[in-house]
Amino acid sequence: MAEPMLEVKDLHAYYGKSHVLHGVDLNVGRGEIVSLLGRNGVGRSTTVKTVMGLVTGAGSVRFKGEEVLGLKAYEIAHKGLGYVPENRDIFPTLTVEQNLILGLKGKTAGRWSIDDMYGMFPRLKERQHTQAGVLSGGEQQMLTLCRTLMGDPDLIMIDEPTEGLAPKIVEQVAQYLKELERRGISILLVEQKLAIALDISQRVYVMGHGHIVFEGSPADLRANAQVRKEWLEV
Length: 234
Known about the structure:
The protein is α/β, with parallel strands linked by helices. Helices cover 35% and strands 27% of the residues.
């Protein structure tokens, strides 16, 4: 594996009295795309929310060698960890460009500019003065990702980016994720669509009942029919 950017060890999380995560271990190396797979309700989204400081957890989360578990979400974000939520958390009454500007963390220029975003997603340039609330689902997904990139993260956790999107848009999203990898951004991808995850990832984790049940390469998972049947197939 590449130099570790994100190291999660023995991570536990609770919703009230419900014990949701049971000792999750995973890591993401520099420049890697790593996918976290599994059925709905097994704890994938809770894992990334706990890493991001949005859910209280116990265990260890190290980002770029520094322990961040217990920090506030904004403190973690300022250290270079980005998070793209499943619900496409945009500001619907603001324009596309205003949403992008809000993604900036400070006055100093990062690796990404608004023109970079428009170059990667030309559709957003066409809609730059449009209120974000009237965008299509695919356009909102692009905008949410780009707003996160404007904060200049070193690693992005993306929760279900293809959920509810048309097949053509799904393929576009996959290509954009590959482009981020080419630009040196590490990615932890929470995804249900197995084909996409296997196509773009260097490594994959499969989750079941709040813990990791499989870790390996896409080829390893393709060869393991038992894991796919027990933990992934509907």
